[in-house]
Amino acid sequence: MKIVHSYNQPDIDGVSCMYAYSQLLNKQSEKADYFIWDMPKQEVNIICDMFGITLNNINEEIPGDNEIVLVDFNALNQTHSSVKPEKIIEIIDHHSISKDLYNYKNIQRIQIDKIGAAATIVTERYKNSGFIPSREVAILLFYGIISNSINLKSNNTTKRDIDACKWLKSICTDISEEKIKDIFIRKSYIEDKNLRFEMECEIPNVFPKCKTIIAQLEVANLEKFLLEKKNKIISIMKDVKNEKQIDFIFINCIDILNGYTIIFGVDEETNKFITKIFEYNFNENNVIKIDKVIQRKELTAILSKNIYKY
Ligand SMILES: [Mn+2]
């Protein structure tokens, strides 16, 4: 059997790819299922609740003999230890290629395209195979693309993402634009106890001379959100900085409804570091505001390229 799997605590793109691709393989007469490790992101629950979709196989072990397909990621340090490199036979992804890839000895097929969402690739697999996605598959793939591409506004959005969304909308009448706004607003109600989890600030970028973390938040009506939560966010960043011995920690916040970005660091030293590396200027509120969507992966790429300036 083939098990379709994504990274730890997957977002809606990862979940939609697992769900949809395992169903497509079954339609193509291959035995397949999916496996979700650790609780998915809050957005996944919002979408599943809204459309009455039930997910299975959360937090269960992958039985040993199965072949594994990775979706929406290709680096093994982000997942469960039962995922062995020699079991991996296929990858569908849109992130940068990791060094792990060279250890996957039994891999038969790799498709890694620099586009808005991995769900776009799975949508295209359906389109090319002639199989029509089920209602649940169409809904999950659609919102997977919308979420990862920040409603098709992110810099990595391509015509392929836009076309995939159009096609999914044309085959499923439950998909609607108003629900996008609804999902984004519901996603922005973050309780303080979940704030650190939603900030995704646990994995450092390690450079020879320093350790950094870029946290991120995607919410609707960001400026209003920050009036209430900015101090709390800074205090979480302070905790993470101390716990993990991080030199510089800062956060990239995206307003997913209105399409702008706000960046700020844990302290003055970090803000100076940000100015040096990214050449952005802080405003009178001591934050950087950019009038378009900048994603964390873009900042990470600039950081790696410019770290020599530090
Ligand atoms: Mn993705």
Describe the structure.
The structure is a single chain. The protein starts with a strand and ends with a helix. The chain is of the alpha/beta class. The model has no long low-confidence stretch (mean pLDDT 94). Helices cover 42% and strands 16% of the residues. It has helices spanning 12-27, 42-51, 118-129, 135-148, 159-171, 177-187, 192-199, 222-244, 268-278, 296-306; strands at 2-5, 32-35, 67-71, 88-93, 109-112, 205-206, 211-219, 248-255, 260-265, 288-290. The chain is globular and about 60 Å long. The strands form 2 sheets. Strands 2-1-3-4-5 form a 5-stranded parallel beta sheet. It has a 5-stranded mixed beta sheet with strand order 6-7-8-9-10, with helices on both faces. Manganese (II) ion binds at residues 13, 72, 94, 117-118, 148. Residues 13, 72, 94, 117-118, 148 line the site of manganese (II) ion (MN).
